Amino acid sequence: INAEYGQRNRSLPTMFALILYCVACLVLLWLVVRLSLSARRRMRRFDDARTLVAFFHPYSHGGGGGERVLWRAVQETHALFAARGARVRVAVYTGDGVSAADMRARALERFGLQLSSDDVEFVPLYWRAWVAAERWPRFTLLGQSLGSMLLAAEAAWRAPPDIFVDSMGYAFSFPILAALVGCRIACYVHYPTISTDMLDAVAECRPGTVHNSDSSAGGWRRSAKLIYYRLFARLYGAVGSCAQLVLCNSSWTSAHIAALWGGSPLVVFPPCDTRALSQLPLAPREQRVLSVAQFRPEKDHALQLRAFALLRERHAAAARDTTLVLLGGMRNDGDRARVDALRKLAHSLGIDEHVEFLLNVPLDELQSELGRASVGLHTMWNEHFGIGVVELMAAGVICVAHNSGGPRTDIVDVGKTGFLASTAGERGWVAGWCVCVCVCVCVCVCVCV
Q1: How far apart are CA 230 and CA 179, in angstroms?
Q2: What does the DSSP 8-state code read for residue 241?
Q3: Nearest to residue 41, comparing CAs of 197, 241, 177, 145?
Q4: Inter-residue long-range contacts of 397-403, CB under 8 Å, 24+ positions, other chains counted
Q5: In what order do the strands lie in the sheet with 51-56?
Q6: Would you call 26 helix, strand, or coil by DSSP?
Q7: Phi, psi at residue 384, to the nearest 5°?
Q8: What phi, psi does 155 have (nearest 5°)?
Q9: What distance separates the 2 farthest-apart alpha carbons in the chain?
Q10: Cα separation, 325 vs 343, whole angstroms
Q11: Phi first, then psi: what are they for 139, rounded to 5°?
Q12: Percentages (nearest 5) of helix, strand, coil residues in the chain
């Protein structure tokens, strides 16, 4: 026994020395990488005195509101530096694998924004799969956050920036850039990775939210998930504090980020070009209910179909000639499968002949649909801002939006500029539609007279 006890005592210093050795190796590796990247930055500044502002936007070929913000931010960055008499070089870290010409053509087709080769350059990223939700079927939030750290390290190695701007919500990239490059860090937050609303949804076993697939299970699973979310929220707050400048897209987002990260984030609403939409005539309009949103799960298109089915069931005469139009972009195979599932749902509800799917349409067709519709629909719970809601209102479409997030705090003035439906089921959506249809009929009659 004494011999075994002595052997264990001798193994402890060995283990301690091994741990110290590993820590020393990691510190040495960090120093080597940091010095290497710093040297590359100095060499680049010697050859090209322009400040490198790099936007971290791995999914930059999409056609949603985040990409609209990205391309306008690129343009405004050039304008800001030019106004100060400074020179700037703007880059976008992207993992889409498309050419620069295709990227610029997408910005022009979808948003009407002209970008030249002098405006932006693209830095390809090859580790984007590490931030895909499909790679992390369990502990998705943590897995994607760790994956974003790997992707940020790749971005720093390929093009160490002077100013790093995260425009997709990958806050865990901040400490990587701070440690490896030592650059200034800014971010534009569209949606907090975790929020107090999500914590409340799990704690209260609320069904129907995006992130609570296990919250209704009860017992130890719900308790474990709540602990996981709270620990993750602490980590999220810690990494968020690494940013020197924090911008948020709505009052709702700003309040959540302030609660998690501290400080006073600035609210900068997303760019909404409503000039062309505001010129659309109010009459004649058709009995078309229009939804404009990417086919992502959180947009909850299934709720729109079920509410539309109830509308036709309970108000058959009024809704006989009404058509529901689901207009949005598809990013990948997951979105395509989601659209197929929605088509099957519409068929099972018996409304497939009265539902249209318009996929990846150009800007002119989007504006045409906005000019035909009478009622707009937006069903996402806790939408961070709601560019689609603003566009619907600017086009003269009466909007029924979810009673949460940005539409409630910043956009919809109930009864004056639109209506809000609560999460208490689909009856609120049906009632809102009925009111909108009546108002639209009155407006059309008045305009025609």
Answers
A1: 25
A2: T
A3: 177
A4: 397/290, 397/370, 397/373, 398/374, 398/436, 398/439, 398/440, 399/375, 400/375, 400/376, 400/429, 400/432, 400/433, 400/436, 401/377, 402/378, 403/428
A5: 121-124, 88-94, 51-56, 163-166, 184-189, 245-248, 266-267
A6: helix
A7: -65, -40
A8: -60, -45
A9: 105
A10: 12
A11: 50, 50
A12: 55, 15, 30
Residue 42 CB neighbours (<10 A) = 11
Distance CA 416, CA 347 (A): 35
Dihedral of alpha carbons 394, 395, 398, 402, sign: negative
| Residue recorded with tokens 């940091």 | 34
Tell how far CA 103 is from the center of its chain: 19
Within 59-112, residue ranges assigned H as helices are: 65-83, 100-111
What gap in Å lies between CA 380 and CA 384, rounded to an integer? 9
Q: With H, G, I as helix, E, B as strand and everything else as coil, classify residue 40.
A: helix
CB 336 within 8 A of CB 325: no
CB neighbour list of residue 26: distance below 8 Å, 6 or more residues apart: none
Where are the extended beta strands (E) located within 264-360?
Answer: 266-267, 288-292, 323-328, 355-359
Q: What angle do CA 333, 211, 400 make, to 5 degrees?
A: 80
Residue 293 buriedness (CB in 10 A; 0-12 / 13-18 / 19+) = buried
With the CA atoms of 269, 123, 109 and 362 taken in that order, what torsion angle do they form, in degrees rounded to the nearest 10? Answer: -80
Question: pLDDT tens, 90-118?
Answer: 999 999 988 999 999 988 888 888 888 88
The total number of residues written for the chain in this structure: 449
CA 334 to chain centre: 16
Extract the runs of DSSP E, i.e. beta strands, from 19-95. Answer: 51-56, 88-94
Q: What gap in Å lies between CA 35 and CA 17, rounded to an integer?
A: 27
- Both tokens of 417, joined, read 């500029």
| Segment 394-432, tens digit of pLDDT | 999 988 898 888 999 999 988 788 888 864 344 445 445
Of 189, 164, 153, residue with least CA distance to 55: 164
User: What tokens were used for 130?
Assistant: 């590490």
Residues 222-241: tens digit of each pLDDT: 778 888 888 999 999 999 99
